[in-house]
Amino acid sequence: MSGSLTDVPGLRVGHAQRTDDGWCTGTTVVLPPPGTVGAVDVRGGGPATRETDALHAASLVPTVDAVVLTGGSAFGLAAADGVMAWCEETGRGFPTPGGIVPIVPAAALYDLARGGARRDAQGTPTHPDAAMGRAAAQDAAARDAGHEIPRGRVGAGTGARVMGATRPGGLGTASVGLPAREGAADGDGAVVGALVAVNAHGTPVTVDPADLCEPASTTGVLGDAPSTPGAPAPGTNTTLAVIATDLALTVAQAEAICRAAHAGMARALDPVHSLVDGDLVFGLATGDRPLPTDPMAAATVLLQAQQAAATALTHAIEDGVSRHHG
């Protein structure tokens, strides 16, 4: 399995992070093309989110302008302020009588003090802020179409850990192509991509232990490991994912893809969706490939996309926790 989220045409991904002076955190921004439909499915007992209600099928605006994955727990949601400001300045947003309003859903994972301190030597809190969010958005905008996504301990994966915070996690990505049938409708041959920041309480179950990162040091950029491996600490985990496709989907259909993708998370991590995880999947549908007009053919494509979403997320998680990062 290979590929990445940027195999979906038009998507760009940018990162910003810090690992010095007590810092070990970062932010990742996904910039979709205009008109991209957004959705979300939230699981687990400890989510830290922003604007997820705006992604429901009954909401006014079906599209999104950016998606933010960030460290810093709930504090890190401030990164979305910088992304919103950047979007407004570049003309991305929903038009209102008072000016455009960017739709920027965000989710945060817990990595507080994993660089060793809650504040650096200057007294600045060591979690993502609006400036880091803006930097990640600018990094995404500067990328070429179809670019390779830096992975591992970058962006939102910088301070991530797995296995009860005893080993480093990270950011991973993968993609799956839908089968194209001879003479079939336009929906066939689409692509489904996954991007994930793995900070799970659970153990990766689809990766050989020999391929996992080395255990977290008791000193250095990952700070102190817990004294009891696997011991839960409330609110200290979360796996954040983005699933994207070039299919033309409604919000409800995109949400169904998100729900199916959680099966891929469950295949890769044990346990998953626990009380100390805030696991969620964002969904993006760029609309380049219309579904077939025949209802049964359309249903077939949607089923294939659901299966591809779960498979892509499983392999993106494998990628995020392996030591072989670009």
From TrEMBL:
Domain of life the protein comes from: Bacteria
Keyword Nuclease: no
UniProt keyword Hydrolase present: yes
Keywords of this entry: Aminopeptidase, Hydrolase, Protease
Residue ranges, annotated region (Disordered): 117-160
Pfam families per UniProt: Peptidase_S58 (PF03576)
Biased composition (Basic and acidic residues): 141-151
Regions of compositional bias (Low complexity) in chain numbering: 129-140
Molecular functions per Gene Ontology: aminopeptidase activity
Family, as annotated: Belongs to the peptidase S58 family.
Protein's name according to its UniProt entry: L-aminopeptidase/D-esterase
Organism: Kytococcus aerolatus
